[in-house]
Amino acid sequence: MAGGSGDIESARSTSDLSLRWGFIRKVYGILMSQLVLTAIVAGIVVAVKPINRALGHTPWISLALGVFALILLCPLYIYRQKHPLNLILLGFFTILLSLTVGFVCAYTRGNIVLQALILTATITIGLTLFTFWAVNRGYDFGFLGPLLFASVLVLIVWGIIQAFFPIVRMLTSVYTLLGALIFSLYIVYDTYLLIQRFDYDEYVWAAVNLYIDVINLFLYILQFLRGNP
């Protein structure tokens, strides 16, 4: 009987591991689709002059797109487990954020955009591999959640202050580096959640978290490089 019980537990463990890896592959598949869509939409915004001129002459449109994307996070979270509504909302969210990224890239030199892309890809891949290695050895990154949330609140307040009271370039560089560091750590934290905590039917929300991390990391690196050419 003891041997039979052990076989059952082993089978369950193997099944759970298989399901978890299937879930992880699904999330990264969605994430890659989002990033490809972002590259396409941003490329269109940069290449089609009437579009980027329209956004350039009416910057409130870009701001509105970003605000709508943030608002869309609420229904995305509420319906994160409701298929296919979760995928439809995900598509709209990705397009809105992609248009914002395209607007930023349209007014940045091409070599700086390329540098930011390379740095973002390198950091993201490196931190992802590190997190998988660390979690496999028993490290727990759950403690990062509250710290990172508080750090983002500081970033938001600092950003609002900068908008109304421009500060010296050095402090702007510190702000962008701090933002890049925070979202680098968010990649570690959200990858940890992906491996250990997300339910199998939360694949859309898991992909959204990682997508936001990568996009914000890219934008902060881009902002730093623009200020320090």
UniProtKB/TrEMBL annotation:
It is a multi-pass membrane protein. The chain crosses the membrane at residues 27-48, 60-79, 85-105, 112-135, 141-161, 173-192, 204-225. It comes from the Eukaryota. Its main location: membrane. Keywords: Membrane, Transmembrane, Transmembrane helix. GO terms for cellular component: membrane. GO terms for biological process: endoplasmic reticulum unfolded protein response. InterPro entries: Bax_inhibitor_1-related (IPR006214). GO terms for molecular function: calcium channel activity. It is found in: Membrane. Belongs to the BI1 family. This is BI1-like protein. It comes from Selaginella moellendorffii (Spikemoss). The lineage of its organism: Eukaryota, Viridiplantae, Streptophyta, Embryophyta, Tracheophyta.
